[in-house]
Amino acid sequence: MRQRPPADESGHAIVDFLDEHRLPHSPENYGFAHTYFEGADEAHFMAVANLIDGGYRLRQEDVRAISAPADLHGTATTIGELSTEVMHIIGATAQEANAFVKTLTLTAAELVSADGSIHSAVARMTAQAERAEERLKQMSLQTALVRERLRSLGVDTDIDPATSLLNRIAIESVLTAALGREGPTLLALVALDQVTSIGATHGIGVVERVLRALGQTLRDHCMPHRVGRWEAKRIAIVFDNCDHEAARDMLNAARKAFSRRKLQRVENETPIGEVTCSAGLVLAPNAVSEDRAC
User: What pLDDT does 140 receive?
Assistant: First the structure.
């Protein structure tokens, strides 16, 4: 039986699988390949394995024939099952959106046609719009259920998994709440200076680990203020009811501590080299200034 790819490689393996079989990179096909690589569904795995044995190239009809009906009623109990469920939700919604676009296109053609019936065209468009609206409502309920089950499985959906910091949505919520209270709120955005060179030398995985180390250092020196991942290469700190001088002192202390860290690759203990950071600090919600704090 094919072994499941490592967590940091499974996405690439799935994309390669789809390319090998010339299948579109759609949510439906991605979920299909994910289920196959995971291997937990024995019937699904064997159906695919038996077909592709000997070099057979899967067709879209094979994908639909093998795929089990989507479970959208909350019975998934593992992260893998939830991942597949999310793909089904996205796929079903995408199909509904495509149908809506086709209906709009046909309706537009009829409206400009000399012999087109405006009443029937508008009625069909209205019915399709109502179906799309209902589908979006169902998707909202289904994604809410997925979120709750992720929490029940011990997955904190407010945390960025790569850095263990608050994710963008969560840190924005912290910022919004702080702005609603009395006292000054400052926002700092911190960037790793050597992202490009580290990525070129050691790979994106090492960049993520260095960002994680940077986040830990910022969290240690800026307590009790909240730290989160703002963008792919930047980390945010929300200084709630804090004056500019105090926030700047904390950032500079974090900068000095981070520059003293001797980071190395876990796999072979290769030194990563010098690591430093730069930051902008501003009184929220104004735009970040060019003030270089770190």
Answer: 62
Return the SS3 of 252: helix
In this prediction the pTM is 0.48
Q: Which residues pair with 280 in a beta bridge?
A: 189
Tell whether the model's pLDDT for residue 16 goes beyond 90.
Answer: no
Q: What gap in Å lies between CA 280 and CA 191, rounded to an integer? A: 9
Per-residue confidence band for 35, with pLDDT thresholds at 50, 70 and 90: confident
